[in-house]
Amino acid sequence: MTCALAPVLALSLMGVAAPAAVAATPYDGQSLRGTALFSIKATNNAAAQQFTTSKSHLTRVSAFVASGAATGQITAQIRRIRTDGASSIANRTISLASLGGAGAGWIEFPVNVDVTPGTTYYLHLQATTTENKPIAWHGTTSAVPNSLTSWNYDRSYWGGWHADEKRLAFYAEPTGSERCGEADQCYVPSTALAARTSGLLGNGTATEAVLPTFAVGAAYVGNSNVLRLPSGRWRYVPAGARTSVVVPANDPGALAQIDASERWLAGGTIPGTTDAQRAAARRSLLSMRALLQPNGASAAAWSPAWQNSWPRDGAFVSAAFAATGHEEEAYRILQYDARTQRADGTWDARTKLDGSGPPDGRAWQLDANGWVPWATWQWYRAAPATERDSRLSALYPMVRKAADHAARSLGSNGLPPASPDYWELSTSTTNIGTAAPLLAGLNAAADLAGRRGMEADRVRWSEAAGRLSAGIARYFAPLGYQRTVDGRHGRDSAAAFMAPPFNRAPADLPAALVSTYRALLQPNGGLTPGNDPGAPWGSYAWTPSTSFFALAWAHLGDRSRADAVLGWLLSKRNGLGEFHETVNGAGNPSSVAPLGWTGALVVMALSARQGDPLPTPPLG
After folding, report:
1. Cβ–Cβ under 8 Å, residues 371 and 378
2. Which residues are bridge partners to 292 per DSSP?
3. Are 479 and 485 in contact (CB under 8 A)?
């Protein structure tokens, strides 16, 4: 008996009765937990659930508990006599801090105790905390057939113990789907709920998100998308299936999938200078692979609003695949881009994953006309020389239409028109988030044209790149590569697009990157996309925007700055090792994970950091 329980026990030694043997069907648990039934905070409150079991030994008991308190502890006892702590045959205390603080879910208490089948016992819970926050045992107000009594100890209201018709959520010796993390969540800290998704399962044709409520206590098995659950069993999407199943550890189908993932990784390179960096690269590559659909559509993430393919995100993923030796995946994305390109050479802002068109009326974004040719060039440079020219033939019409549209879009000042960029917000004047990608794309297209002997194309796009470069130098450089040429919208992380591996860095760019980074740095250590007062970022840091600087500095040879940014990014991965889209003001990963774009950026930055930078398109 713990000291925390003593005040309750001293007041509740009443109606003591010997344990009774029962012949009815054992009542050893029920899963309904939609209502917070009883407070279990000492010293005025506790709760107990009467149960019987057919087993002779219990290794664990579980209860669904919600806590507003972040500190304190919860003690579970198995008692022979409900009101007598001295009758306890098992006693286990778990701290809220070890559970992650405030939160809710099933808590499994190891007990390892012999019991007598058919005998009545009581699972007793009580919590202690110095915080003025509720801690409650959940259950249901609905009738549970053949159930036994739930007991509420409320000294102020009942004067002691009270038998209740409500039924607490508990299990004595939970097994199979009764274990937390299988059909229902383990205890999940509230901080984890800032995320929409936490990981991915997949089999190459079907993808499934791991929700935050089922990521706690779980881990991937090796380098795969097979998940080891807290129970020790595995969850995965079998070959040919559309949804996941839970199987015993070492299931042959799951082992085959693990082996396939390991062999796929071994077919390429794993960048990084430390074990942690290489682990992050492996997980990012596997996540990008899981987000890639058979038709080449690259989902941004696996949550409804992100389950679309953005040409921008796909271009970065393609480049990362190419840089690490996964040429087939890189090429598949580019083939999808060729099929979904519009007749005028542009792309919708995003498309449904089946390629049937956009999911909504979101405004198209001109920067895709730079990103896709740049990604095509990156693929070409990395692809085997023996076959890349023939395979480029299928992509070149797409490059030509994209580059021609980009060239035609340039005004008399050499700049493209105002267009939504990766912020997906309109600007009234040209933004750097469109101009810099178009410069990279025009230089890339011109080089591809030259390699194919298409001299007229090369000259046309080289001249356009020259005009655009001059316009950027004239209008953006004096402002430190701020967001827009009118200087009214502050700094923009897209200044990093003027650096390799996109563009040859102008002489004044390193200083502009440092000043931009400082301007966008948040207290949580990451960056917002920009500091335009009208932008919707708040205190959130965005991992893609932060990664831009890791990529730029790694390619510019600024190792200390690149390592600092990479260190922050790696520190904000979740428990499954995935990168989230954002990190909130409290420093907790939020939004979706994994985000393919961030994974791609980190992989490319790690490649450069280990001395294998991506090439930069030559000046036209």
Report:
1. no
2. 298
3. yes
Neighbours of 387 (CB within 10 A): 10
Place of tokens 């190459």: 204
Spell out the residues 6+ positions from residue 396 whose beta carbon is closer than 8 angstroms to its own: 448, 452, 454
Residue for token digits 């060039």? 377
- The rounded radius of gyration (Å) of the Cα atoms in the chain is 29
Q: What are the backbone angles phi and psi of residue 75, rounded to the nearest 5°?
A: -115, 130
Q: Which residues contact 244 (CB under 8 A, 6 or more apart)?
A: 201, 208, 235, 236, 237
Q: What angle do CA 605, 610, 616 make, to 5 degrees?
A: 55
Q: Which residues pair with 355 in a beta bridge?
A: none
Alpha helices (runs of H) in 12-128, residue ranges in sequence order = 96-99
User: Measured between alpha carbons, how far is residue 549 from residues 305, 539, 606 in Å?
Assistant: 26, 19, 12
CA dihedral (304, 420, 285, 218) in degrees, to 10, reads -40
Q: Which of 563, 484, 562, 574 is nearest to 211 (CA)?
A: 574
Q: Name residue 407's beta-bridge partners.
A: none
Give 132's contacts (C-beta < 8 A, 6+ positions apart). none
Taking residue 249's Cβ as centre, other Cβ atoms within 10 Å add up to 14
Q: What is the pTM of this model?
A: 0.93
Is residue 180 helix, strand or coil? Answer: coil
Which residues touch 299 (CB under 8 Å, ≥6 apart)? 207, 291, 292, 293, 306, 307, 308, 309, 353, 596
| Separation of alpha carbons 472 and 482, rounded Å | 11
What's residue 620's pLDDT?
A: 73
Give the tokens for residue 452. Answer: 């194919």
Peptide bond into 43 cis (omega under 30): yes
Specify the pLDDT at position 244. 98
- What is the per-residue pLDDT across 9-46, written as a single tens digit (0 to 9) for each? 222 323 333 444 444 689 999 999 999 999 999 999 99
DSSP structural state of residue 57: E
Contact 333, 374 (CB under 8 A): no
Q: How far apart, in whole angstroms, are the C-alpha atoms of residue 472 and residue 479?
A: 10
State the pairing for strand pair 167-168/135-140.
antiparallel
pLDDT digits (tens, 9 = 90+) for 319-362: 999 999 999 999 999 999 999 999 999 999 999 999 999 999 99
Instruction: Give the amino acid at 428.
Output: S
pLDDT at residue number 10: 29
Q: Which tokens sit at 567?
A: 């260190």
Interatomic CA distance for residues 49 and 122, integer angstroms: 5
Alpha carbon 376 to chain centroid distance?
Answer: 27
CA distance 171 to 356: 48
Cα 103 to the center of its chain, rounded Å: 20
Contact between 377 and 396 under an 8 Å Cβ cutoff? The reply is no
Looking up tokens 């309904």 gives: 32
Contact 35, 5 (CB under 8 A): no
Backbone phi and psi for residue 386, each to the nearest 5 degrees, phi listed first: -70, -20
The C-alpha angle with vertex 543 and arms to 305 and 191, in degrees rounded to 5, equals 75
Residue/partner pairs of 514-522 with CB below 8 Å, 24 or more apart? 514/561, 515/480, 515/491, 516/480, 516/481, 516/491, 516/492, 517/549, 517/561, 519/490, 519/491, 520/491, 520/493, 520/545, 522/585
What is the SS3 assignment for 357-382? CCCCCCCCCCCHHHHHHHHHHHHHHH
**What type of residue is 245?**
V
